[in-house]
Design goal:
Two copies of one chain form a homodimer.
Chain A (H helix, E strand, L loop, with lengths): L8 H29 L3 H12 L4 E3 H8 L3 H13 L3 E5 L7 E5 L1 H21 L6 H24 L1
Antiparallel strand pairs in A: 1-3, 2-3
The structure holds a DNA duplex.
Protein name (chains A, B): MarR family transcriptional regulator
Organism (chains A, B): Rhodococcus artemisiae
Chain lengths: ~160, ~160
Amino acid sequence: MEPTRWLTHDEHRLWRSFLDATRMLFQDLDKQLVRDSGISFADYEILVLLSEAEDRRLRMRELSDASTTTRSGITRAITRMEAAGWVQRAECESDKRGAWAELTDKGAATLASAGPGHVAAVRATMFAVLSPDDITVMADAFTAMRDHIQLHRRSG
Amino acid sequence: MEPTRWLTHDEHRLWRSFLDATRMLFQDLDKQLVRDSGISFADYEILVLLSEAEDRRLRMRELSDASTTTRSGITRAITRMEAAGWVQRAECESDKRGAWAELTDKGAATLASAGPGHVAAVRATMFAVLSPDDITVMADAFTAMRDHIQLHRRSG
DNA sequence: GAGTTATAGTTGCGTCGTCAACTATCTGTT
DNA sequence: AACAGATAGTTGACGACGCAACTATAACTC
């Protein structure tokens, strides 16, 4: 058993500010979307994924992988969003177990109307304080983190 | 109405990787704590705050501010943790409305036993891929973000 | 010092998300 | 072809958290 390596001063400074800033950021983005467009941040992201997909549709499984939530979470989210008229389920011909989630015109319209306000909020809260160099460094860092965590998950 | 400034390539790269990495990171840290020490990430953070406080106690309000959750969330968390024996409520002499949340010896012991595994997980998932320069840049960036968001919240 | 306003903490209600179990279907092995 | 094991999606039970409403106390104003 190695002795514990506690965080250095700078590591601790990063860790605390990262936790605080991230939570506040997500809270504020969610509130902005709900207030201005009646849609949660989580649902907004699902609409984005669908809008970028071929034929504006994805399998439930693909959605859960891409959105970092569980399959059951996606089931419930799509059920909600189907009730709102933003998406619809469609039978999957090639795999009878499966189901497509398709973006509807209404969902696309909702996304289009929510987009500008959301991007403005992202700019106002996050990018307003970042230099171009910061953005490059952090994009590399978080890409590496994502890949690292994903790799680590498979093995252990 | 300004035309919407969508994200540049690098901004988008940062935004996506930040969202994905952050979610996976929090999920993995929570699972590690629950699995190895029977405590959630959220509760762990409350124990940390209490352990660092004078006399190992904080007002409910201070806890909710410091942990970026609502007062009602803190009420419920402290109730749970009181049942687990990690904290106890104490009457506040100087403000009859108020209540202290105090860390118990058992809570301190739980924190001490969970700490090393948690720090190791934080190192393994986050700091493993960051250079010292990355850490400095990102600590400055997130500190600025936190301050910026906090300022922005007050004004409306 | 009486009355208004603000603040501390709790609670009811609703929503969201996870886990574990389940059904239906697909895939690989013999 | 038949069966064992994986995979897709759903559901029930449960826990966590936010909002809004409520009580009690404090702080401010006249």
